[in-house]
Structures are given as structure tokens and as C-alpha cells.
Amino acid sequence: xxxxALKMDFVSSSTLDEKGDKRISFILSKVRDGSIMVTDAxxxxxxxxxxxxxxxxxxxxxFPGIEVCSLKKQxxxxxxxxxxxxDQKEKIAEDVWDDAKIRPEDRHNAYWTCEDNQKDKEES
Amino acid sequence: xxxxxxxxxxxxxxxKKEIRLGIYGSVNTGKTTLANKISMDWTGSPVGKVSExxxxxxMVQKKEKVELKLDKKKVMINLLDxxxxxxxxxxxxxxxxxxxxxAAKARAREAxxxxxxxxxxxxxxxxxxxxxxSTEDPLTQVNITLLGNLEARKIPVIxxxxxxxxxxxxxxxxxxxxPQYPVVEISALKGINIDNLYGAIGKYSRRxx
Lengths: 124, 209
Hints:
The structure holds two protein chains of two kinds. Chain A is mostly helical. Chain A has helices spanning 13-18, 23-32, 45-58, 78-99, 104-123, and strands at 7-11, 35-39. Chain A is 58% helix and 8% strand. Chain B is of the alpha/beta class. Mean pLDDT of chain B is 89; it is low at 11-15. Classes of the chains: A mainly alpha, B alpha/beta. The interface between A and B is medium-sized, with 26 and 31 residues.
């Protein structure tokens, strides 16, 4: 099976700030373009709600919406922060596999391959 | 007589006795089951229909003048059962419940409108019950965004850790994820600990301005 390529756009907070009132539209245009957008910018909680609202306005047959993973300060230290990020990252990964129509058994192999590669690196 | 005087007195300062209590949360956390439980307990009639199919509630459902008689006081609430919040609504997810493609697309369209309506209502609620499913990871973007918004708007919130009757329930995970908020563990379906929730509503609710 031929895997679809994943496109990631790294956008700096200054670039996003330059967009002013158009920040939400800019983010959504990137996502609708098929990119996973990564940014170090922080959205205000009201902006996050606006992002959800604007996403809902744009949902159609070909665009079901977005997945968001925010790294926030946690009150229980770095370990909890790391755990919550890993949980969210895995959820998003599952959705990416779904969208790319990759069978669950192939996903399992892909995960194990990654882990095996990591183990190999550590052992060497 | 005294109640009438109290209403008149509060009215002088722009205060009302009724609290607009919004029930918010992700899809399928048991919001309508909870709204029905509260409404049945105090009025004898339900608020809305419950279904295992996501986005059953696609419009705000209201039950006005629900009077809670607590230990030392009475609290009058207008109950607002909100559509479930989501960042993604894919009509294809409804097909597995046996819906036709046309019906699934219509449901998805209504569901997106419902999310927008629920967000708009954040400007018109006095207290929020943030309902979370105790069997699921509470650190979702919807929960984080909802609580962040309520904090920014200074709206009192009670986190309701629902579905504690399920074996997989881990209400402590909710307490640990959001230690700065009051958390009440309940099963809306079985009515477990529901009196604790009524006590919390009386304790944390803010009067409408």
C-alpha cells in the first residue's frame, strides 16, 4: 500500500501575530490545505473557542474539522505534561491513520517498526 | 410574603433569583441524561431525548423555573442542556448507526450549528456544569478550551465526573487533571451521589445579573 505523505507546516508565533484578526482564518486555511500545523504561538481561550466556532462553520462533506493538541503548563510537573502530550499525540495519530485509510494491522506494524528502530538506535 | 419582598429587593440592585445553569461538555458524556435527572427530580418531566448516537442534542434544550429545595435555601434555576462540543464532526461516523447518507449529512450539519449555538450561549449562563465521562481521558482539547473560557469569563463551574457506575470509571483522573475546580462524582443514569451535586449547585452558583 502506498502511504500518503504527511505535510507539516511550522509557523512561528511572530508570523501568526502578523496575521492579527486573521489568525484563525490563517490556521484553518493551513489545515484545510491538508497540513499539520505546528506553532509555538499561544491562543487565548476565547480564540480557541473562536477556532472551534469557525471550524464548525466550515465543516462540509470533504472537511470534517480539526484535531488540536495544545501543550499547556500543568500543575503536576513535567512528567504529567509529557504523559498528556503523548496521549493526545496518539489520538491524533489514530485520526491521521483513519484519514489515510491505513488498516489497523498495518498501523500496529508501523508503530512497532518505529519502536524497534528506536531500540536499535539505543542499543547501538 | 418574605420571598416576594426578597425578589423585589434583589430587583432594585439588578439581581434576579433565577440562575441560568448551563450543562456543557463533549459529545456523549451524559449531559442530557443529567438534565433529565435534575428535571425529573424537581419537576417530574424530562428535558430531552437520550441516544447512543453522538450529537442527539443539536439545539439548546431549556427547562425554566426548576426550583431546587436544598437544606437551608431554595435555588431557582433555568436549566440549559447544551449540544455537545466538538472540534470535528464527520457525517460518515453516523453511517455505522444505520443512517442513510442523506440523514447523516443532515445530522452533521445540524450538529455543527448546535456547537456554534452552545458557544454563543456562554455569554448568557451564570453557572456551568462541565460534564465529563469518567471512563475517558479528561485532558481533551474540548475540556481544556471550555474551562479556559469559563475562567476568562469568570463563570463559576462545577466539574461533573459522570458515569461512575461503569467499571472503567476513573473519576480521580478528572480531579488530578483539574485540581483547581470543584469536582462532583456522580452517575446521572443511576442517580448516584446526585444530592452532592445539588449541594454543590447551591454552594457555587452565582446569582444572575
